């Protein structure tokens, strides 16, 4: 599916690069695994090839999809205001999908809320982490301008 040197996006972790494919022993069974170096947090992840689909790892978004996401980020309506615990769960579920649009919506909504009132500690952390994941992917999209990246800041 993925090639060594290919950039990928891993939900809840952001952008990474496939560094190697190695045989590892997992639960007494030898399996081919991707070795992924994450750009955020200086972390390395090992994932068996047969688990790659269930992990929701995906290729980097292209510039065409980004233009749609940029429009939604700037002009889209925020979700209805929920109590913070429900909002936190909804936002966590969005981030876990690994989809750039879902992450952009979380960042947009939390940034808008932050302008109106202080976020609680959990939401501040979610905003910072999700924003960092989003920026890590934006930096890998071919054809993106610096101004487009700044519009997400």
TrEMBL record:
One of its GO terms (biological process) is rRNA transcription. It comes from the Bacteria. Residues 1-111 form the CarD-like/TRCF RNAP-interacting domain. It holds the Pfam family CarD_TRCF_RID. InterPro entries: CarD-like/TRCF_RID, CarD-like/TRCF_RID_sf, CarD-like_C, CarD-like_regulator, CarD_C. PANTHER family: RNA POLYMERASE-BINDING TRANSCRIPTION FACTOR CARD (PTHR38447:SF1), TRANSCRIPTION FACTOR YDEB-RELATED (PTHR38447). This is Transcriptional regulator, similar to M. xanthus CarD. It comes from Solibacillus silvestris (strain StLB046).
